[in-house]
Write a structure and sequence with these properties.
Blueprint lengths: L5 E9 L13 H5 L9 H25 L3 E6 L4 E7 L3 H9 L13 E8 L2 H24 L5 H33 L1
Antiparallel strand pairs: 1-3, 1-4, 2-3
């Protein structure tokens, strides 16, 4: 019996444009590595890849890739996915991921898909995802220990300021509509 051999691609979704319009400018690192919207599901990712492979390589590419294409792991909060694809044709999947510029129609958000690692086993791909998460935590702790204002706190303050200003605008609009209602 012949074993089917696969490759596992560790993928990051990066967002070059802000998904939420904010009056205050967020740091670029936070903006680019922002969480993926919850509406993006594993099925959308597989469909996106299949469509990309079909567009680039036609029916031949679709036939070669679609049999074992699967999203083994997906985290919307870290914008990370592990995608299983056939070993002999993983370059086709990589190329299709590289050419993706927007998320599917319900979301329609500009995106950059970056393949971080190609692995022969799911275990090594999972270890890479864990290693990258630990690296991010270590950097955040080092930044906090340096005495600088941590990025998380600065982002929280910016969001609070936006909420307060929006609340003041809504209160002013409500007061204006109440006074208009009394005069009539």
């Amino acid at each position: 019996m012949v074993r089917v051999k696969n490759r596992y691609l560790v993928v990051n979704f990066l967002y070059p444009e802000p998904t939420v319009k904010s009056k205050t400018q967020l740091p670029d690192l936070v903006q680019i590595h922002s969480p993926t919207p919850d509406a993006l599901k594993q099925g959308f990712i597989v469909r996106m890849i299949r469509d990309g492979v079909h567009e680039l390589f036609g029916d031949y590419g679709s036939g070669m890739v679609s049999a074992s294409l699967k999203v083994n792991y997906y985290s919307a909060s870290t914008s990370t996915a592990i995608i299983r694809c056939p070993r002999d044709h993983y370059e086709m999947v990589w190329a299709a991921l590289t050419y993706i510029t927007r998320l599917p129609i319900p979301l329609d958000i500009p995106v950059v898909v970056r393949v971080v690692r190609v692995s022969g086993t799911i275990k090594k791909a999972e270890e890479e995802v864990i290693r990258r998460s630990q690296q991010i935590i270590k950097r955040a702790r080092a930044w906090d220990a340096a005495g600088d204002l941590p990025m998380l706190q600065s982002v929280e303050k910016a969001v609070d300021r936006d909420r307060k200003s929006e609340g003041e605008v809504l209160a002013a609009v409500d007061e204006g509509s109440e006074s208009d209602g009394m005069s009539e």
